Protein backbone atom coordinates (compact mmCIF):
# COMPACT_ATOMS: atom_id res chain seq x y z
CA UNK A 1 0.00 0.00 0.00
CA UNK A 2 2.75 2.43 0.96
CA UNK A 3 4.83 1.65 -2.13
CA UNK A 4 1.85 2.27 -4.39
CA UNK A 5 1.12 5.59 -2.71
CA UNK A 6 4.80 6.57 -2.79
CA UNK A 7 4.95 5.85 -6.51
CA UNK A 8 1.79 7.84 -7.22
CA UNK A 9 3.03 10.82 -5.23
CA UNK A 10 6.39 10.61 -6.99
CA UNK A 11 4.57 11.01 -10.32
CA UNK A 12 2.78 14.10 -8.98
CA UNK A 13 5.81 15.66 -7.25
CA UNK A 14 8.78 14.53 -9.33
CA UNK A 15 9.36 17.89 -11.02
CA UNK A 16 9.24 19.69 -7.65
CA UNK A 17 11.59 17.15 -6.06
CA UNK A 18 14.09 17.20 -8.93
CA UNK A 19 14.22 20.98 -9.20
CA UNK A 20 14.40 21.30 -5.40
CA UNK A 21 17.28 18.81 -5.29
CA UNK A 22 19.20 20.71 -7.96
CA UNK A 23 18.62 24.01 -6.18
CA UNK A 24 19.56 22.51 -2.81
CA UNK A 25 22.81 21.09 -4.17
CA UNK A 26 23.77 24.27 -6.04
CA UNK A 27 22.94 26.83 -3.35
CA UNK A 28 25.85 26.07 -0.94
CA UNK A 29 28.30 25.89 -3.86
CA UNK A 30 27.18 29.23 -5.25
CA UNK A 31 27.39 30.87 -1.81
CA UNK A 32 31.14 30.17 -1.58
CA UNK A 33 32.04 30.61 -5.22
CA UNK A 34 34.35 33.53 -4.44
CA UNK A 35 36.27 31.44 -1.94
CA UNK A 36 36.50 28.40 -4.19
CA UNK A 37 38.22 29.98 -7.18
CA UNK A 38 41.71 28.63 -7.71
CA UNK A 39 42.66 31.44 -10.08
CA UNK A 40 42.10 34.29 -7.60
CA UNK A 41 43.12 35.21 -4.10
CA UNK A 42 40.90 33.90 -1.29
CA UNK A 43 38.17 36.13 0.09
CA UNK A 44 38.83 37.91 3.33
CA UNK A 45 36.85 36.79 6.37
CA UNK A 46 34.43 39.72 6.25
CA UNK A 47 33.80 39.36 2.53
CA UNK A 48 33.18 35.63 2.83
CA UNK A 49 30.77 36.06 5.74
CA UNK A 50 28.87 38.74 3.84
CA UNK A 51 28.58 36.53 0.75
CA UNK A 52 27.47 33.48 2.74
CA UNK A 53 24.92 35.53 4.68
CA UNK A 54 23.43 37.10 1.56
CA UNK A 55 22.91 33.70 -0.07
CA UNK A 56 21.69 32.30 3.26
CA UNK A 57 18.38 34.12 2.75
CA UNK A 58 17.43 31.51 0.17
CA UNK A 59 17.72 28.46 2.45
CA UNK A 60 14.50 29.09 4.44
CA UNK A 61 12.75 30.25 1.26
CA UNK A 62 13.67 26.98 -0.47
CA UNK A 63 12.62 24.94 2.58
CA UNK A 64 9.24 26.67 2.78
CA UNK A 65 8.68 26.37 -0.97
CA UNK A 66 9.45 22.64 -0.97
CA UNK A 67 7.12 21.97 1.94
CA UNK A 68 4.37 24.08 0.38
CA UNK A 69 4.53 22.63 -3.14
CA UNK A 70 4.86 18.99 -2.10
CA UNK A 71 1.95 19.35 0.35
CA UNK A 72 -0.26 20.91 -2.32
CA UNK A 73 0.71 18.27 -4.89
CA UNK A 74 0.00 15.52 -2.34
CA UNK A 75 -3.63 16.51 -1.83
CA UNK A 76 -4.43 17.95 -5.28
CA UNK A 77 -5.65 14.64 -6.84
CA UNK A 78 -7.90 13.97 -3.84
CA UNK A 79 -9.43 17.42 -4.10
CA UNK A 80 -10.01 16.98 -7.83
CA UNK A 81 -11.72 13.64 -7.23
CA UNK A 82 -13.66 14.94 -4.22
CA UNK A 83 -11.96 12.28 -2.04
CA UNK A 84 -14.05 9.51 -3.61
CA UNK A 85 -11.03 7.26 -4.18
CA UNK A 86 -9.73 7.76 -0.62
CA UNK A 87 -13.11 6.94 0.91
CA UNK A 88 -13.46 3.81 -1.23
CA UNK A 89 -10.20 2.27 0.03
CA UNK A 90 -10.46 -0.42 2.75
CA UNK A 91 -8.27 1.53 5.19
CA UNK A 92 -9.18 3.90 8.02
CA UNK A 93 -9.00 7.59 7.23
CA UNK A 94 -6.24 8.19 9.79
CA UNK A 95 -4.05 5.52 8.18
CA UNK A 96 -4.65 6.92 4.72
CA UNK A 97 -3.56 10.38 5.91
CA UNK A 98 -0.51 8.90 7.63
CA UNK A 99 0.51 7.07 4.46
CA UNK A 100 0.08 10.24 2.42
CA UNK A 101 2.21 12.23 4.88
CA UNK A 102 4.92 9.57 5.09
CA UNK A 103 5.21 9.27 1.31
CA UNK A 104 5.67 13.01 0.95
CA UNK A 105 8.28 13.07 3.72
CA UNK A 106 10.24 10.30 1.99
CA UNK A 107 10.25 12.26 -1.28
CA UNK A 108 11.53 15.35 0.54
CA UNK A 109 14.58 13.37 1.64
CA UNK A 110 16.03 13.84 -1.86
CA UNK A 111 16.45 17.66 -1.74
CA UNK A 112 17.60 17.42 1.89
CA UNK A 113 20.34 14.95 0.95
CA UNK A 114 21.24 17.03 -2.10
CA UNK A 115 21.71 20.14 0.04
CA UNK A 116 23.76 18.12 2.53
CA UNK A 117 26.06 16.92 -0.25
CA UNK A 118 26.35 20.42 -1.68
CA UNK A 119 27.18 21.89 1.74
CA UNK A 120 29.91 19.31 2.40
CA UNK A 121 31.39 19.82 -1.06
CA UNK A 122 31.24 23.61 -0.71
CA UNK A 123 33.12 23.69 2.60
CA UNK A 124 35.65 21.18 1.27
CA UNK A 125 36.37 23.17 -1.89
CA UNK A 126 36.37 26.64 -0.31
CA UNK A 127 39.44 28.39 1.07
CA UNK A 128 38.20 29.32 4.54
CA UNK A 129 40.15 32.13 6.28
CA UNK A 130 41.60 31.57 9.74
CA UNK A 131 39.06 32.12 12.50
CA UNK A 132 36.12 30.80 10.46
CA UNK A 133 34.69 27.29 10.26
CA UNK A 134 32.31 25.42 8.00
CA UNK A 135 29.07 24.06 9.42
CA UNK A 136 27.63 21.81 6.67
CA UNK A 137 26.09 19.29 9.08
CA UNK A 138 24.39 21.93 11.22
CA UNK A 139 23.06 23.69 8.11
CA UNK A 140 21.77 20.42 6.65
CA UNK A 141 20.01 19.47 9.91
CA UNK A 142 18.41 22.90 10.17
CA UNK A 143 17.29 22.74 6.55
CA UNK A 144 15.81 19.27 7.08
CA UNK A 145 13.86 20.43 10.12
CA UNK A 146 12.61 23.52 8.27
CA UNK A 147 11.49 21.46 5.26
CA UNK A 148 9.65 18.91 7.40
CA UNK A 149 8.05 21.62 9.54
CA UNK A 150 6.85 23.51 6.47
CA UNK A 151 5.58 20.28 4.94
CA UNK A 152 3.70 19.32 8.12
CA UNK A 153 2.03 22.74 8.42
CA UNK A 154 1.09 22.99 4.76
CA UNK A 155 0.02 19.32 4.65
CA UNK A 156 -2.47 19.93 7.46
CA UNK A 157 -3.79 23.07 5.80
CA UNK A 158 -3.99 21.47 2.34
CA UNK A 159 -6.15 18.67 3.73
CA UNK A 160 -9.04 21.15 3.97
CA UNK A 161 -11.03 22.62 1.09
CA UNK A 162 -9.08 24.10 -1.80
CA UNK A 163 -10.34 27.63 -1.18
CA UNK A 164 -9.59 27.59 2.54
CA UNK A 165 -6.19 26.05 1.95
CA UNK A 166 -5.34 28.64 -0.68
CA UNK A 167 -6.18 31.57 1.59
CA UNK A 168 -4.30 30.19 4.61
CA UNK A 169 -1.28 29.12 2.59
CA UNK A 170 -1.01 32.51 0.91
CA UNK A 171 -1.15 34.33 4.26
CA UNK A 172 1.36 32.01 5.97
CA UNK A 173 3.74 32.03 3.01
CA UNK A 174 3.68 35.82 2.76
CA UNK A 175 4.32 36.25 6.49
CA UNK A 176 7.26 33.82 6.44
CA UNK A 177 8.81 35.35 3.33
CA UNK A 178 8.51 38.96 4.52
CA UNK A 179 9.83 38.14 7.99
CA UNK A 180 12.78 36.12 6.71
CA UNK A 181 13.86 38.86 4.31
CA UNK A 182 13.43 41.54 6.98
CA UNK A 183 15.38 39.49 9.54
CA UNK A 184 18.32 38.84 7.23
CA UNK A 185 18.39 42.48 6.11
CA UNK A 186 18.35 43.64 9.77
CA UNK A 187 15.24 45.73 9.15
CA UNK A 188 13.11 46.53 12.21
CA UNK A 189 9.73 45.56 10.74
CA UNK A 190 6.92 44.56 13.10
CA UNK A 191 4.42 42.69 10.93
CA UNK A 192 2.03 41.15 13.41
CA UNK A 193 3.23 42.48 16.74
CA UNK A 194 2.97 40.03 19.59
CA UNK A 195 1.69 37.26 17.35
CA UNK A 196 4.76 37.58 15.20
CA UNK A 197 7.02 37.39 18.24
CA UNK A 198 5.19 34.35 19.58
CA UNK A 199 5.23 32.45 16.28
CA UNK A 200 8.43 33.48 14.48
CA UNK A 201 10.82 34.18 17.37
CA UNK A 202 12.34 31.56 19.61
CA UNK A 203 10.76 29.42 21.05
CA UNK A 204 7.93 29.92 18.56
CA UNK A 205 6.96 27.07 16.20
CA UNK A 206 8.33 28.82 13.09
CA UNK A 207 11.47 30.30 14.67
CA UNK A 208 13.66 27.97 12.65
CA UNK A 209 12.95 30.02 9.52
CA UNK A 210 14.32 33.25 10.96
CA UNK A 211 17.81 34.25 12.02
CA UNK A 212 21.07 33.69 10.16
CA UNK A 213 21.55 30.66 7.94
CA UNK A 214 25.34 30.38 7.76
CA UNK A 215 27.32 27.67 6.01
CA UNK A 216 30.54 29.31 7.20
CA UNK A 217 30.73 31.32 10.43
CA UNK A 218 33.05 32.11 13.33
Which secondary structure elements does this structure contain, and how are they paired or packed?
Blueprint: H1 2-31, H2 45-56, H3 58-80, H4 84-88, H5 93-125, E1 133-134, H6 136-158, H7 162-184, H8 194-200, E2 216-217
Antiparallel strand pairs: 1-2
Helix pairs in contact: 1-2, 1-3, 1-5, 3-5, 3-6, 3-7, 5-6
Compute the separation of the termini in Å: 48 Å
Mean of pLDDT: 80
Report the C-alpha radius of gyration, rounded: 19 Å
| Class per helix and strand makeup | mainly alpha
Low-confidence stretches: none
- Say how many strands there are: 2
Individual helix count: 8
| Total domain units | 1
Q: Mind describing the biggest β-sheet?
A: 2 strands, antiparallel
Portion of residues within helices: over 70%
Percentage of residues in strands: under 5%
Order of helices and strands: HHHHHEHHHE
Strand order of the main beta sheet, please? 1-2
Tell me, briefly, the overall form: globular
Amino acid sequence: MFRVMLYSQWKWCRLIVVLGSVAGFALPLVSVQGAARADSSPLQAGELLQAVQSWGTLYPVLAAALGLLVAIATWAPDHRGRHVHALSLPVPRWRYVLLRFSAGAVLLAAPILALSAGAVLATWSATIPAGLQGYPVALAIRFALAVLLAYAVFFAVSAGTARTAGIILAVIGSVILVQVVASVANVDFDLLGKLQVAVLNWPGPLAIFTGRWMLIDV
